[in-house]
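Quick illustration, no need to memorize.
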Amino acid sequence: MNDSQRRTLVIGLPSALACAAVLTTYAALRDRLPDPLATHFPASGKADGFSGAGSFLAVAITLLAVQCAVFAVLAHRSSRGMGSLRLMAAFAYGVSGLLGYAFPATLFVNADVPDAADVRFPMWQLAVALACALTAGGVGWLLAGADAAPAPGPAGVPHRLPLGNGEAASWTRTVTSRVLLAAGLGLAGVGAVLAFTVNPRSGLPMAVVGAIAVLLSGCRVTVDRRGLTVSPPVVRLPRLRVPLGRIEEATSRRVDAVGDFGGWGYRIRPGRRGVVLRSGDALCLRLSTGKEFVVTVDDARTAAALLNTLVDRARAERGGDRPAAAS
């Protein structure tokens, strides 16, 4: 078994086991379950939401299967070892432990109850579910091994764009994360299904999270006299800006979203942070604090060259270093 297959197996295993637990429990209790089932319980523990037994099983298996597929694909596509996927492994195992207990527990509390309206879900079950999640997450963390911090890839040679005195220039590109877009659409779709088939309160939060993920699945990267600005392409908020005065030097290099930063979105790693929406070309800024800021975007070399020119010009205007020759 090669490294890619091992990563895929380790990351996808807990979702598959949770799915097997749900199917086994349903098969064992099928003749003892009411229809519809009680599937939503407020703080009092008395059921206030119901769904058909078949719908409940379909939703549970779909959620676990999608989770298994997503984590398995991410692990398979990563070019790094298991150590760099430690947080992902802990999360995958934790969620699987939570759902792998909660779904069968829901079936058990429905067993042998003639009327689903009389079903109660003891709140101590939630504590057990959280304990299962934490335990499973710890197992995933340990199985992934030591979390060796990935070394940054080789940066490109700093370049500069030739700009004459008084000339102004700006650069902008839009980048979209297919992973975040697909995840957002998937969450919104599953949330809508849950809202219609189970209970609006069960599906609405998931649908809202999915819609937010879709809105934040892309960003516009702009370089101009103000520095670097990163903002969503539609709503334009929240906005992230790195002024010229904080930038020491800009370069470009290729990054691995999972291997280098552990996933997609706004990422924080030791000594660096950034907006990572995909693997590939990235604009890399060495900041005055000694840390690094990274944003993945096409044509990052041109953006870096323009930033270096603008940084040199800003230093000259402040009476600092003279601008370097264009290259």
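The CA atoms of residues 250 and 285 lie 5 Å apart.
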